[in-house]
C-alpha cells in the first residue's frame, strides 16, 4: 500500500476533502486520510497504557506473593496439597493474609490498594479515550495540513508525485511516496510551510555550530596521539614518560581511538533529534538526514581536526620558535598522523567485528533484565521476542569515513590501504552475518542510504587532491599543482553530472521498468535466451566494470522470486492504515501468570469486566518464577505485522 500512497504536506484548507482532490488528480484516487491534532489523545492513550501496565505488574506481584505463601504453607504442613479455596466466592489473598500491593497517590498522600485504584482509574480513562477516539475517527477535531492519498496503482502515484499540485508556492509540497504507517513521524505533520523553513535553517545553523565547537574535545583527543611531545612541553605530565613502553603505546594508540569513538557516539543521537525538530516526516528521511549530518561530523572531527592537531602537536615547539615554518613542518608531520589512523582502523576492525559477533553486552543485559526485572510475562516476552535494531544513520557514516581516510592517505602513505582493507573486511563479515541472523531493520530507506554513502566517498577524492595540491605547492612544483588542479576541476564536474543523472532515478520510478517487467513476465524464457545471446560470457573484470550491462534490471529481476503472494488487507486495516496509532489504539491485553491454586483465575474474573486479561501461556513454577512457552503460536502478545 505504501508504494501507491503519497504524503502531501502544507495542504490548504480548501483541499482537505476527497472531492477537491479528485478534481486535481482525477479518479485515480482510491482513499484519503486527513491527519488530525492528536496531542491530547496521545497523552490520554499513554496514560491509559501506563495504568494498564501498572495494574498488570500489581496483579502479577499479588499472585506471586500468594503462591509463595501457599508453597511455604505446604512445606510446613499447614496446607494440604489437595486443598484449594473457592476463588469465585472468596478472596484468597485475605484468607491467607497476603499483603496486597499498595501505593501513595502523592508523595505524602493517601495510601490506597494498588489493584483496586488502578482498576477504577483504568475504567474511567478507557471510556475517555474511547469517546475521544470516536471524535477523531468522525473528523470532529482540528485537522492538520498533511494528507495521505492512496492511488489505484503505483504508476498513478508516481504521476501525482511528479505533478505540480498547486499554483501557490510551498502549498501541497513537499510530497513523499513509500512512507509506511510505522515510519511516519507524526509530530512533524503539524508544521506549516513557514515553520518548516525556519526550523530547517535553525537546525542547519545549530549543526554548523556543533561542528565547530565539537572541534575542541576532538582536538584534545587528537593531541593525545602525540602525548610524548606534549609531555615535553607540559612539565606536570612528565610522569607519563616514565611509564612502561606498553602503557605509553596504549595511551598514544588505543586511548585516542577509543575516546574518539565514544565521543562521536553522541553525534547520531543529536542529529536524529535535530531531524525530527526540523520537520522531517518519516523515519527513513530521518535516517538519511542523520547519515549526512553524521558524515560531516565524522569527516571534520574524526579526520580533519584530528589529523591537523596530531600533526601540529608534533611540531609545536618548532612552530613556537619559527611561526613562518608552519607550512613546512605540517607537511613533514602530516604523514605521522597515519599511525593514529592505523590504530583506528585496527580498533574498529577487530573490536567492532568481534563485539558485533559475540554480542556480549546484549547477552549480559538480557540476562540481567530477565533475572532482576522480569515483573510480568510481558517483560519476558518483549525481552525474548524483540530483536536488536540497527540505525543506518549510525553505521554508514563511520565506515564511509574510514574509506574517505584511506582514499585521502592513499597518496601520502599508501601503507594505510592495507590496514583499511583488513579493518573494513572484518567489519563487513561481522555485519553481513548480523544482517542475516541477528538484526531487525525497522526503518526501510528503500536502499537510499547506499547510493548516498557512495556519493560521500567522493569526499576522499576531493581531500586527496587538495592535499596533493598543497604538498606540491609547498615544494614549488608548479607542474604537478596544475595537473592536480585540473583533476580537481574534472572531479567536481563529474560529480555534478553524476548527481544530475542519478537523482531522478533515486527519487522516481522509471516507466520503462513497468514495460520491461511486463515483457519479462510474458516471455520470461524467450527474454532470458535473448539476453544470453546479447551478452556473451566475459571475463570477471569486464563484468565488474560494466554493471550497466551485466547487472541491469533484466539480469537481476530473474534472480528474484515472482510467485510471491500479493498482500491482502482487511477492511479495518485499510480504513485505519494511515491514522495516527493512538486514534485506533485498543486497550492492551493484560497478561498474568497462572498459579495452580486458581488465584490468577480469580483476578481474571475480577478484572475482565474492565480490561481484557488472560493467564494463558505463562505459569509459576516450583521456585515461584514466571515460566512461559516460547514456541506457543497463540501467546496473548504474539501478533503478525501488517506489511504496508
From TrEMBL:
<feature type="transmembrane region" description="Helical">
    <location>
        <begin position="461"/>
        <end position="489"/>
    </location>
</feature>
<keyword id="KW-0175">Coiled coil</keyword>
<dbReference type="InterPro" id="IPR027815">
    <property type="entry name" value="CSC1/OSCA1-like_cyt"/>
</dbReference>
<feature type="domain" description="10TM putative phosphate transporter extracellular tail">
    <location>
        <begin position="544"/>
        <end position="633"/>
    </location>
</feature>
<dbReference type="InterPro" id="IPR003864">
    <property type="entry name" value="CSC1/OSCA1-like_7TM"/>
</dbReference>
<dbReference type="InterPro" id="IPR045122">
    <property type="entry name" value="Csc1-like"/>
</dbReference>
<keyword id="KW-0812">Transmembrane</keyword>
<keyword id="KW-1133">Transmembrane helix</keyword>
<dbReference type="Pfam" id="PF02714">
    <property type="entry name" value="RSN1_7TM"/>
</dbReference>
<dbReference type="Pfam" id="PF14703">
    <property type="entry name" value="PHM7_cyt"/>
</dbReference>
<dbReference type="InterPro" id="IPR022257">
    <property type="entry name" value="PHM7_ext"/>
</dbReference>
<feature type="transmembrane region" description="Helical">
    <location>
        <begin position="395"/>
        <end position="428"/>
    </location>
</feature>
<feature type="transmembrane region" description="Helical">
    <location>
        <begin position="206"/>
        <end position="237"/>
    </location>
</feature>
<feature type="domain" description="CSC1/OSCA1-like cytosolic">
    <location>
        <begin position="3"/>
        <end position="187"/>
    </location>
</feature>
<feature type="coiled-coil region">
    <location>
        <begin position="115"/>
        <end position="142"/>
    </location>
</feature>
<feature type="transmembrane region" description="Helical">
    <location>
        <begin position="257"/>
        <end position="275"/>
    </location>
</feature>
<dbReference type="GO" id="GO:0005227">
    <property type="term" value="F:calcium-activated cation channel activity"/>
</dbReference>
<dbReference type="Pfam" id="PF12621">
    <property type="entry name" value="PHM7_ext"/>
</dbReference>
<protein>
    <recommendedName>
        <fullName>DUF221 domain protein</fullName>
    </recommendedName>
</protein>
<dbReference type="GO" id="GO:0005886">
    <property type="term" value="C:plasma membrane"/>
</dbReference>
<feature type="domain" description="CSC1/OSCA1-like 7TM region">
    <location>
        <begin position="199"/>
        <end position="471"/>
    </location>
</feature>
<feature type="transmembrane region" description="Helical">
    <location>
        <begin position="295"/>
        <end position="320"/>
    </location>
</feature>
<keyword id="KW-0472">Membrane</keyword>
Amino acid at each position: 500500500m505504501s508504494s501507491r500512497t503519497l504524503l502531501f504536506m502544507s495542504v490548504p484548507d480548501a483541499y482537505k476533502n476527497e472531492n477537491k482532490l479528485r478534481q486535481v488528480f482525477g479518479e485515480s484516487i482510491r482513499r484519503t486520510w486527513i491527519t488530525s491534532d492528536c496531542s491530547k489523545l496521545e497523552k490520554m492513550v499513554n496514560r491509559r497504557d501506563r495504568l494498564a501496565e501498572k495494574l498488570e505488574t500489581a496483579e502479577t506481584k499479588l499472585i506471586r506473593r500468594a503462591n509463595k505463601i501457599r508453597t511455604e504453607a505446604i512445606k510446613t504442613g499447614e496446607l494440604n496439597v489437595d486443598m484449594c479455596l473457592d476463588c469465585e466466592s472468596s478472596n484468597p489473598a485475605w484468607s491467607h493474609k497476603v499483603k496486597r500491593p499498595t501505593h501513595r497517590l502523592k508523595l505524602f498522600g493517601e495510601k490506597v490498594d494498588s489493584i483496586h485504584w488502578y482498576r477504577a482509574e483504568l475504567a474511567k480513562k478507557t471510556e475517555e479515550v474511547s469517546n475521544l477516539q470516536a471524535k477523531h475517527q468522525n473528523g470532529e477535531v482540528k485537522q492538520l495540513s498533511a494528507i495521505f492519498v492512496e492511488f489505484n496503482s503505483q504508476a498513478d502515484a508516481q504521476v501525482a508525485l511528479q505533478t505540480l499540485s498547486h499554483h501557490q508556492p510551498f502549498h501541497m509540497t513537499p510530497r513523499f511516496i513509500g512512507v509506511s504507517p510505522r515510519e511516519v513521524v507524526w509530530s512533524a505533520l503539524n508544521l506549516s510551510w513557514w515553520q518548516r523553513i525556519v526550523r530547517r535553517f535553525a537546525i542547519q545553523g545549530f549543526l554548523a555550530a556543533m561542528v565547530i565547537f565539537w572541534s575542541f574535545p576532538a582536538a584534545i583527543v587528537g593531541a593525545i596521539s602525540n602525548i610524548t611531545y606534549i609531555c615535553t612541553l607540559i612539565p606536570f605530565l612528565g610522569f607519563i614518560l616514565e611509564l612502561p613502553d606498553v602503557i605509553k603505546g596504549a595511551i598514544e594508540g588505543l586511548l585516542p581511538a577509543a575516546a574518539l569513538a565514544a565521543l562521536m557516539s553522541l553525534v547520531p543521537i543529536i542529529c536524529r533529534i535535530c531531524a525530527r525538530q526540523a520537520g522531517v516526516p518519516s523515519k527513513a528521511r530521518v535516517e538519511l538526514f542523520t547519515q549526512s549530518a553524521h558524515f560531516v561530523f565524522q569527516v571534520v572531527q574524526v579526520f580533519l581536526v584530528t589529523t591537523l592537531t596530531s600533526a601540529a602537536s608534533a611540531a609545536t615547539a618548532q612552530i613556537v620558535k619559527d611561526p613562518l615554518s608552519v607550512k613546512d613542518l605540517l607537511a613533514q608531520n602530516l604523514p605521522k598522523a597515519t599511525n593514529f589512523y592505523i590504530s583506528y582502523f585496527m580498533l574498529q576492525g577487530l573490536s567492532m567485528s568481534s563485539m558485533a559477533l559475540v554480542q556480549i553486552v546484549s547477552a549480559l543485559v538480557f540476562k540481567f533484565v530477565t533475572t532482576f526485572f522480569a515483573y510480568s510475562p510481558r517483560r519476558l516476552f518483549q525481552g525474548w521476542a524483540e530483536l536488536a535494531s540497527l540505525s543506518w544513520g549510525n553505521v554508514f557514516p563511520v565506515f564511509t569515513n574510514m574509506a574517505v581516510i584511506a582514499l585521502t592517505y592513499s597518496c601520502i602513505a599508501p601503507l594505510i590501504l592495507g590496514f583499511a582493507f583488513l579493518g573494513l573486511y572484518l567489519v563487513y563479515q561481522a555485519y553481513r552475518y548480523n544482517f542475516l541472523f541477528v538484526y531487525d531493520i525497522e526503518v526501510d530507506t528503500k536502499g537510499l542510504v547506499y547510493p548516498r554513502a557512495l556519493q560521500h566517498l567522493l569526499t576522499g577524492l576531493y581531500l586527496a587532491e587538495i592535499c596533493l595540491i598543497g604538498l606540491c605547492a609547498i615544494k614549488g612544483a608548479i607542474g604537478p599543482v596544475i595537473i592536480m588542479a585540473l583533476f580537481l576541476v574534472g572531479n567536481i564536474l563529474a560529480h555534478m553530472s553524476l548527481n544530475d543523472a542519478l537523482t531522478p532515478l533515486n527519487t522516481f520510478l522509471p516507466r520503462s521498468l513497468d514495460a520491461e517487467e511486463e515483457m519479462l513476465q510474458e516471455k520470461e524464457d524467450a527474454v532470458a535466451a535473448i539476453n544470453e545471446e546479447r551478452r556473451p560470457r566475459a571475463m570477471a573484470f569486464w563484468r565488474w566494470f560494466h554493471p550497466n550491462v551485466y547487472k541491469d534490471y533484466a539480469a537481476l529481476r530473474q534472480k528474484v522470486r515472482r510467485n510471491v503472494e500479493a498482500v491482502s488487507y482487511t477492511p479495518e486495516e485499510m480504513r485505519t492504515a494511515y491514522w495516527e496509532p493512538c486514534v485506533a489504539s485498543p486497550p492492551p491485553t493484560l497478561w498474568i501468570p497462572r498459579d495452580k491454586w486458581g488465584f490468577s483465575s480469580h483476578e481474571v474474573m475480577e478484572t475482565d469486566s474492565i480490561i481484557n486479561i488472560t493467564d494463558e501461556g505463562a505459569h509459576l513454577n516450583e521456585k515461584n518464577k514466571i515460566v512461559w512457552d516460547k514456541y506457543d503460536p497463540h501467546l496473548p502478545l504474539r501478533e503478525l505485522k501488517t506489511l504496508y
